[in-house]
Amino acid sequence: LNFEQVTFIKSAAKLSQCPEDKGREVAFAGRSNAGKSSALNALTGSKKLARTSKTPGRTQLINFFALSETYRLVDLPGYGYAKVPEAVKAEWQKHLEDYLQNRDSLIGIILLMDIRHPLKEFDQIMLEWAEYYQKPVHILLTKSDKLKFGAAKQAALKIQRELKPFGNLVSLQLFSSLNKMGVDELKKQLSTWLLDEKIINV
Ligand code: GDP
Fold this sequence. Notes:
By secondary structure, the chain is of the alpha/beta class. It has one domain (7-194): Rossmann fold, CATH 3.40.50.300. 35% of the residues lie in helices and 21% in strands. It is built from six helices and seven strands; from the N terminus they run ββααββαβαβαβα. The chain has helices at residues 36-44, 48-53, 86-102, 121-132, 149-162, 183-194; strands at residues 7-12, 24-30, 62-66, 71-75, 106-114, 137-142, 170-174. It has a seven-stranded mixed beta sheet with strand order 1-3-4-2-5-6-7, with helices on both faces. β3 and β4 (71-75) form a beta hairpin. The radius of gyration is 16 Å and the shape is globular. It starts with 6 loop residues before the first strand and ends in an 8-residue tail after the last helix. The protein binds guanosine-5'-diphosphate.
């Protein structure tokens, strides 16, 4: 898989506007400011992808990118952005759950959390949905460069303990877009999911 070869497909406000539900895709989710755009930049080696997602009007949409005809990366709307009315938040939440519940080609979720502010309400909601709909989650503890390596390791262990109830469904790693720590590990996780021969929905 060449993660540098991503091309924008389309944006969708709801499930019915998503590309055809075939092939495989991995979705990136996180609270606003968790470092999702920076991580996508670090992964793809280009600012193009994240810039597309941050185009005004697209930040609240599900943005689809193609790695090939079969494989996609999906940038989910950053949650908790600005001071949007409760009704708007509820609407996003509905579309997001609808997507997680019904999208067969979605085979895994990358959940980004600032290592200094893990497991906030949105993260808990995502984890509960993922468990309910049986979609595996791989967590990136972002901005790990903000802590000394030992402290980052300690934080990761503590979070891992809190995630024990989810068993094998949830894994995690340290990540930093600043010094590129964890980029190769992320690529490995994405390849494992996307190329898994046990999944036969392609
Ligand atoms: P998004 O809202 O989740 O897309 O977050 P961004 O990628 O825009 O990042 C939010 C802020 O965190 C920006 O000021 C980034 O420069 C900063 N940031 C993102 N990733 C890192 C990182 O790995 N290390 C450090 N130190 N700062 C980061």
